[in-house]
Amino acid sequence: MFSRFLDFEVNGKRYSMKHGTYRNKISQYVRNGYAQLEYYSGPAFYSLKGVSFTKPKPGMTNNHTVVPQLSSVSSVSFIDNLPADIHALHDIRFRFKVDNIWTTIANSHPELEPNAKSKDISLEPLHTHDLTIKTTIHHTDTVSVMVACSQTPVAADLKGLVRLSNALTRVEERLLQYIECAPPSLSLSSIPDHDSWIVTMWHFGYDSPSEYTGDEFEVAWEYGENELMRIYTKDLNGITKIRRERQEYPNKRFDEAIDEKLPTVTKMRAPSAKDA
């Protein structure tokens, strides 16, 4: 299914692919005998040549029910009428570029050993504001930042945005500490403000306000050419709720993506910690 290739990682390096590119490549692989069509179920599912799998049937598979067609979702009344808690963001991914940052960190911090294949430098995860933030410096001087907060999503309100902004400010400060010993002869650009970081992906949705006591399930379908809709059960500190989310790829500056997604909230946005 092409949505799996819109944003993916190989050996610590992130890649993206447009729908047209995926379609051309998978057609070429089928013609050359590397891949084969398994079945259609809304989207088309492919596998490596000689590796077959069957179309999932409604029911429990690994404790999850997979309902691949949108029409199947619409027939489930409790999902159609699912009450909504406050909308929130999680699994947020950013990228930005800093000239010569990789060389600076590689030369001045030998304890940070680059990946043998990708040459990426991964910093220790930063735990702040109930968020886990992973930062990777790529050999191309692109910096990737991933905010993992599936258990504690960032609420789409003023308090939630200030929480996320303050956490990203800690990332900026941390990177500044790593590069402050750069030699004057090296042309090193500054760490950009997180408002200008490009949002490459985020999950936007909400959890049910009340506990769900039925069987576990997962429903997923493609939503346009660059979005994936999912509805699934989520264990939140021992309480099972239903989560409904869209996996989106804004590919815009953080401030622009937020203004577009949450215009009412951003009009009320208070200064971040570093503005105080």
Counting structural domains, the number is: 2
Number of helices: 7
Record field, number of beta strands: 17
Question: Kindly state the mean pLDDT as a whole number?
Answer: 76
Report the order of strands and helices. EEHEEEEHHEHEEEEEHEEEEEHH
Report the helical percentage.
Answer: 10-25%
Q: Can you describe what's shown?
A:
The chain has 276 residues and is α+β, with helices and mostly antiparallel strands. It folds into 2 domains: 1-54, no CATH class; 88-275, no CATH class. The protein has helices spanning 19-31, 70-74, 77-80, 101-108, 158-179, 254-261, 263-267; strands at 7-10, 13-16, 35-40, 44-48, 60-61, 64-67, 88-97, 121-122, 126-128, 131-137, 142-148, 154-155, 198-207, 218-222, 228-236, 239-248, 252-253. Strands 5, 6, 7, 8, 9, 10, 11, 12, 13, 14, 15, 16 and 17 form a 13-stranded mixed β-sheet that branches. A two-stranded antiparallel ribbon has the order 1-2. It has a two-stranded antiparallel ribbon with strand order 3-4. A hairpin with a 5-residue loop joins strand 14 (218-222) and strand 15. 22% of the residues are buried. Residues 56-83 and 270-276 have low confidence and may be disordered.
